[in-house]
Design goal:
256 residues, Immunoglobulin-like, 2 domains, 8-stranded antiparallel β-barrel, 5-stranded mixed β-sheet
């Protein structure tokens, strides 16, 4: 899985001179306050949803801090947990006037991986039969590396059971790597097992990096390699003896 940011909303209106006899502008009673918009989520109460992208399933937690004093948008703390890794950050959400249900809320946020790679997310969400949302994200350093994300199920739904496998790369999943440049792959399992690591290219072809490699429960292993000369997206797939898998994608690029 596989991303502070500015958000500007401009409304430009052109009003010509208009005179209509017998029609007057309605006056607003200053003694009747304008109701404040409701927050997207209950303020200062964490709400958790199931989260998914190309790297697998995890959980996403929002904490709504209430409206920003300047824009009126809700300020959010955000945490995504996936494949044993936690990504934390912040962002905003706001209701989109007139948007059709269920996707009535705009959301945008940035999260940072433990190794410092930042990802920018944007999308829409809202309540239908259940609360749902979807959108795209990319590394802050490269907006061309776009992937999709989604959230689903009702608030408070616990995340999936902890995965027994963990797979990551030194720049963070979803990052770009220079052709013929170095890459470090890190993996581990929660139980004694034998693992297989496969490199899948964007055309669907695969190569096995190692097969039936014994590992000790909880121990972290690293594999250093070189990105091949073929540009494009690659997906690393780590599989245990029971067939469970975790994935981590990256893109081989020229001159980076």
């Amino acid at each position: 899985m596989k991303r502070s940011f500015p958000l500007a909303v401009a409304l430009i209106g052109a009003l010509g001179a208009l005179s209509v006899p017998g029609v007057q502008a309605q006056q607003t009673n200053p003694n009747i306050p304008t109701p404040a918009p409701s927050p997207i989520f209950p303020v200062n109460q964490p709400v958790t949803f199931r989260y998914t992208d190309a790297q697998g399933m995890g959980s996403i937690t929002f904490v709504d801090l209430g409206p920003d004093q300047t824009t009126g948008f809700d300020l959010l703390r955000v945490n995504i947990t996936q494949n044993g890794t936690s990504f934390s950050g912040s962002g905003i959400a706001t209701v989109i006037p007139g948007a059709p249900r269920p996707l009535t809320d705009l959301v945008a946020f940035t999260v940072v991986s433990p190794n410092g790679v930042a990802y920018f997310f944007e999308g829409m969400m809202g309540l239908g039969v259940e609360f749902q949302g979807s959108g795209t994200f990319h590394p802050v350093s490269d907006p061309t590396q776009i992937e999709t994300w989604g959230l689903l199920f009702t608030p408070g739904t616990p995340g999936p059971p902890p995965t027994t496998l963990s797979l990551s790369i030194d720049r963070g999943c979803g990052s770009g790597y220079p052709i013929n440049g170095p890459i470090v792959i890190t993996y581990r399992a929660a139980a004694n097992d034998t693992l297989t690591l496969t490199d899948q290219r964007s055309d669907g072809t695969q190569s096995v990096l190692f097969a039936n490699q014994p590992v000790v429960a909880g121990q972290t292993y690293s594999l250093s390699g070189v990105v091949s000369s073929q540009p494009g997206q690659r997906t690393l797939i780590l599989t245990d003896t029971a067939g469970a898998q975790v994935t981590c994608s990256f893109t081989g690029v020229n001159n980076q």
